[in-house]
Automatic annotation (TrEMBL):
Family the UniProt entry places it in: Belongs to the nitrite and sulfite reductase 4Fe-4S domain family.
Superkingdom to which the source organism belongs: Bacteria
UniProt source species: Oryzomicrobium terrae
Keyword check for Oxidoreductase: yes
Record GO terms (molecular function): 4 iron, 4 sulfur cluster binding; heme binding; metal ion binding; oxidoreductase activity
InterPro entries in UniProt: NIR_SIR_4Fe-4S (IPR051329), NiRdtase/SiRdtase_haem-b_fer (IPR005117), Nit/Sulf_reduc_fer-like_dom_sf (IPR036136), NO2/SO3_Rdtase_4Fe4S_dom (IPR006067), NO2/SO3_Rdtase_4Fe4S_sf (IPR045854)
Residue stretches making up the Nitrite/Sulfite reductase ferredoxin-like domain: 53-110, 327-398
Segments forming domain Nitrite/sulphite reductase 4Fe-4S: 119-272, 414-551
Protein name (record): Sulfite reductase (NADPH) hemoprotein beta-component
Gene3D superfamilies (UniProt xref): Sulfite Reductase Hemoprotein, domain 1, Sulfite Reductase Hemoprotein,Domain 2
Length: 571
């Protein structure tokens, strides 16, 4: 993984010292709340419903066991002993004291971590696939490119005050696991006929209040031009993006307003000034960065292991875990393992300090000391020998980290919602818990099969509800919490049908109704599915109608009408 050099370390130390002084001046009243606000935000500190919220970056989701142990220590010493892994490779602490945040950053700097650009209208954490470097489908490892973008964009003065926050995702596989279509810039690595590496460049995607999928503006950009081309895009956005209205400030609105073709023309015009200039990436520079991402020292192992096969045959719980939480690996004899953060006893994505330490131990013992954070809010051990799977399973089980549900309905994505977030219209964690409780039967869950359920507490869509097969969105109706349901969204990741936005099925529901609604949707699917058809495929074959009919059947028309009338205010 990328290791800091002396310059990186020095920059981080200076930054912590600067921030420490800013906090001090705020405490003594030398800085007003308004003056302190942008300074704290530039260091990842929000003020939330109950307490500050501190967002720590995990660049492209890659963590060492040492870093995870440090996160555990920080969560224990300065928070309530847990942290929350988000959909964008960050860890959020929900209860730190403002006064402690310089100390937290100092501890993080010891292990080459920080919170810079985790907030503010700048280029945020660059995200990628949690299987980067190990995916059998991989065209090229996206991490060196993500790191290039990180180095280039961190402290980039020209793009520190964009019209709005800016998110870039890079995918290196034929299957997109980084949801590139829902990012401001999505970069899909491709190989041309000559075997050279380049990027398909997508622009103007995003969820939130106005969900839009990104448009391709370049079919094949040679990798040498990555930074100059991204710079050209950002310049066009910086010049024309709307600063008058924060709700219309994202690049997706600009691309939509101009049209992708016109936007592309503007970018090409700007690029003419930058192409082949100093930001062009040289082979030496790429190789310098790529050396940080070489494969670990794999042993030559047989692809199968008899002990594992025998345990799978004799122990259904282990077989289930292998079926859902163990993933193929480029290297024979190895597998990637998802450490689930979806035990129903904890909010989705939450991880206690003790659990973080347990996962760090597992990484040291079985995965070359390395881990990943997935955008589905789980952790991944990327390089586990197949023969060690039973040991990993036992150890994960002991800590409540072996929930065997990856990709199933209860492996849901869920934002912190009204329990923490001051922007929320409704709570989302109790909704997640109620659904997880309703679908606790593993036999049933396995029978239902692949189903993504995503929950957001407001239209900002942090929980990615637009791209859930079933999406649940908290809406406010006259001060009460209601939930709107969408169907058919997905991030399938397969070329040609990577991502789609869900469709609203109709009037929203009370919190108490939601589990029953989900159950009805699932029952409708089970009754209608063809042999191996997934929920999503059945939905695409049948459309909204049968699901809608089943869910609203028996609801009183009056209630329906009132609800429908109110709905329009939330469009
Ligand atoms: C688990 C916690 C969180 C996660 C995973 C998360 C992640 C995200 C993601 C993925 C989006 C969608 C952006 C897009 O694709 O356009 C988003 C939007 C947004 N989030 Fe969060 N976020 C979290 C917490 C928060 C909190 C606590 C705040 C409040 C300070 C917040 C404020 C926003 C806003 C304002 C937007 C809309 C941005 C826009 O469309 O311009 N988020 N967040
Ligand atoms: S979706 Fe809304 S409620 Fe949920 S974390 Fe984002 S801003 Fe907060």
């Amino acid at each position: 993984m990328y290791r800091y050099d002396a310059y990186d370390h020095a920059i981080l130390r200076q930054r912590v010292a600067q921030y420490r002084d800013q906090v001090r001046r705020w405490k003594t009243g030398e800085l007003s709340d308004d003056e302190f606000r942008p300074l704290r935000l530039q260091n990842g500190l929000y003020i939330q419903r109950h307490a500050p919220m501190f967002r720590i970056a995990v660049p492209y989701g890659l963590l060492s066991s040492t870093q995870l142990r440090k996160l555990a220590e920080v969560a224990r010493d300065y928070d309530r002993g847990y942290g929350h892994f988000t959909t964008r490779h960050n860890l959020q602490l929900n209860w730190p004291k403002v006064e402690d945040t310089p100390d937290i950053l100092e501890k993080l700097a010891d292990v080459e971590m920080h919170a810079i650009q985790t907030s503010g209208n700048c280029v945020r954490n660059v995200t990628t696939s949690h299987f980067a470097g190990i995916d059998p489908d991989e065209i090229a490892d996206p991490r060196p490119f993500a790191e290039l973008l990180r180095e280039w964009s961190t402290f980039q003065p020209e793009f520190a005050f964009l019209p709005r926050k800016f998110k870039i995702a890079v995918s290196g596989s034929t299957r997109d696991r980084a949801v590139t279509l829902a990012h401001d810039i999505g970069l899909n690595i491709k190989k041309n006929a000559a075997g050279e590496i380049g990027f398909e460049v997508l622009v103007g995607g995003g969820l939130g209040r106005t969900p839009i999928l990104a448009k391709v503006i370049e079919e094949f950009l040679p990798w040498q031009h990555l930074l100059t081309f991204v710079e050209a895009i950002l310049r066009v956005y910086n010049s024309y993006g709307r600063r008058d209205n924060p709700y219309k400030a994202r690049i997706k609105i600009l691309v939509h307003a101009l049209g992708a073709e016109q936007f592309r023309k503007e970018v090409l015009e700007e690029w003419a000034n930058l192409k082949d200039g100093p930001s062009t990436v040289g082979t030496e520079e790429l190789e310098r960065i790529a050396r940080h991402f070489t494969a670990p020292d794999y042993a030559a192992l047989p692809a199968r292991d008899e002990r594992v096969d025998a345990l799978k045959a004799s122990n259904p719980a282990f077989a289930r875990w292998v079926a859902r939480n163990v993933h193929p690996h480029k290297q024979p004899g190895y597998a990637a393992v998802t450490i689930s953060l979806k035990d129903p006893r904890q909010p989705p994505g939450d991880c206690t300090s003790e659990q973080m330490e347990a996962v760090a131990d597992l990484a040291d013992q079985f995965s070359f000391g390395e881990l990943r954070v997935s955008h589905e809010q789980n952790l991944v051990l990327p390089d586990v020998p197949v023969s060690a799977l039973p040991d990993v399973w036992e150890a994960a089980k002991a800590k409540g980290l072996s929930t065997p549900t990856v990709g199933l309905l209860t492996d849901l994505i869920c934002c912190p919602g009204g329990d923490y977030c001051s922007l929320a219209n409704a709570k989302s964690i109790p909704i997640a818990a109620a659904i997880q409780e309703r679908f606790a039967d593993l036999d049933y869950l396995f029978d239902i099969g692949d189903l993504d359920l995503n929950i957001s507490g407001c239209m900002n869509a942090c929980g990615h509800h637009h791209v859930g097969h079933i999406g649940i969105l908290g809406v406010d109706k006259n001060g009460e919490e209601w939930y709107q349901v969408t169907l058919g969204g997905h991030t399938d990741g397969v070329k040609g049908r990577e991502t789609a936005l869900g469709k609203v099925i109709g009037p929203s529901f009370s919190a108490a109704e939601v589990p029953e609604v989900v159950e009805t949707l699932v029952r409708t699917y089970v009754a209608q599915r063809h042999d191996d058809e997934r929920f999503l495929d059945t939905f695409e074959r049948l459309g909204l109608a049968p699901f809608k009919e089943a869910v609203y059947a028996g609801r009183r028309p009056a209630a329906l009408n009132t609800s429908a009338a109110r709905e329009s205010t939330h469009a």
